[in-house]
Design goal:
Layout lengths: L1 H47 L4 E7 L5 E10 L6 E4 L4 E3 L1 E2 L3 H6 L5 E2 L4 E2 L9 E2 H9 L4
Parallel strand pairs: 1-5
Antiparallel strand pairs: 1-2, 2-3, 3-4, 4-6, 7-8
Helix pairs in contact: 1-3
């Protein structure tokens, strides 16, 4: 019985690892597609506008906004997701801190998704392409 149980556990472990590997490959492929969309947008925005603006990070509770060294474009109306002028993707959320209020914060870039807010409440997700098109529509 213990040999059978050990084989079953090993089979489950291998299946879980295969599932995790497949998910990671899918996320990497989506991030590559998203980066291509962002790179295209940034090149176009440099030529035609709109100009990048200073980006700020919001605290998790949304009560405060902190300066960042970034300039770019917000992807969502709540200004929590953005791309900078170099085409890097940022989640602009930060814990509240007195140091952040005084000195500002320096968010780290992350891998961009094709769908912003996927898995959130209804109406809170938007395709990256649609978010970029909304920014394009603001050209002067």
């Amino acid at each position: 019985m213990s040999d059978e149980a050990a084989r079953w556990r090993e089979g489950r472990r291998e299946a879980a690892q295969a599932h995790a590997d497949a998910l990671r490959r899918k996320q990497q492929a989506e991030s590559s597609q998203a980066r291509a969309l962002i790179d295209e947008f940034v090149a176009e925005a440099r030529r035609l506008g709109p100009d990048p603006e200073p980006l700020r990070a919001r605290t998790y509770d949304g009560r405060a906004r902190y300066r960042t060294p970034l300039t770019g474009w917000y992807l969502r109306f709540d200004e929590t997701l953005a791309i900078d002028a170099d085409g890097l993707f940022y989640v602009l959320r930060t814990p509240p801190s007195l140091v952040g209020r005084v000195r500002g914060v320096a968010p780290e870039p992350s891998d961009p998704p094709l769908v912003l807010g996927a898995g959130g409440k209804d109406g809170e997700s938007i395709d990256l392409r649609d978010a970029l098109d909304r920014i394009r529509a603001r050209r002067a």
